[in-house]
Amino acid sequence: MKVRAAVAYEDRAPLVIEELELSEPGPEGILVRMAGTGLCHTDVKVRAGGLGVAKPVVLGHEGAGVVERVGERVTKVKPGDHVVLTFDSCGACGPCRRGAPAYCDESAPLNFLDGRSGAPGSFQKDGKPIHGHFFGQSSFSTYAVARPQNTVHVRRDAPLEILGVLGCGVQTGAGAVMNALRPKAGDTIAVFGTGPVGLSAILGAVVCGCSAIIAVDVLAARLEMARQLGATHAVLANATQDAAEEVRKIVRGGVDFALGTTGQAESNEQAVHALAARGTFGFVASPAGSHLAVKMSTVMGRGLTIRGIVQGDSQPDVFIPQLIDLYLGGRFPFDRFVSRYKFEQINQAIEDQARGQVVKPVFTFAP
Ligand SMILES: [Zn+2]
Ligand SMILES: [Zn+2]
Questions:
Q1: Could you list the residue range(s) of the whole structural domain that residue 30 is in?
Q2: Considering the domain boundaries, does residue 23 fall inside one?
Q3: How many A from CA of 220 to the centre of ligand 1?
Q4: CA torsion, points 242, 356, 198, 259, in degrees to nearest 10?
Q5: Region 152-163: what's the mean pLDDT?
């Protein structure tokens, strides 16, 4: 079938919106008519040449839409169902069987290294293949083919066009707190970095009932937004003050939990030094080649835990509907940091986000 998709042809070049051919979903595929797709940092990184993803490619991995058609072996959803698409997983390996699909043994080939040229749900332009299946979806497209493993059935009374962000960025931040770190009511947390992932983590910390939620960032405007979303304190990270020290002034002795969302070495080290004895540092970003320089004697002597977290440890079929329920109950207002753009404005949105003018763009598709 004919679709309109945004193609990344060359590193850092603007995406090109054009007509492509999308092949049939196949027996296990789910054809989704996209309502909206979020822009995630990983899209930006891959467009710039990162993560070994071959071009030309259709990116996009925060899609939400309506099921148009399903393959004959699909029983999970039916045409007309509202769905959020998320990261792909195999469903059969050890981590998948233990309920931890974010740590799937097949994660890299399924989400980044499309080896399925010619497989169901592939894109073509004038008979030549365009890479797809990015995060099992490639949802910068009016239609995309997903699989049961990365398709989450959601309630119909939520604003479908913005729900896709729950499938990656928002579940990464909120899940890091709610599923992985799991603070008890009254515990304290510092969130380093207040982009979409950090702000989602702050919303998660509010849901968990943390008594102190300290946002740390270099941008004063983001800190203001963090406060509006429930951060109890804000620390401006700059050259003249030590952020760890500032956190420890707010919560004497340090915080129970610190979450690193920036991927920057200095910020991560400050996060570790902001911890109380027996505290936990979780992190959700690890740029290629990055290291954490922390003395083992510090980790041992203070009984610290260091925890890498992928996709918020989410079981998306459980967690995404929970986040939607919380949102509709007024307790998880992630829409406050979402900015809507038309799909045709995709390059504008990427620029606006890079300049810090918007936090989380979502592209909406005309019905
Ligand atoms: Zn697996
Ligand atoms: Zn993402």
A1: 2-167+333-364
A2: yes
A3: 41
A4: -30
A5: 98
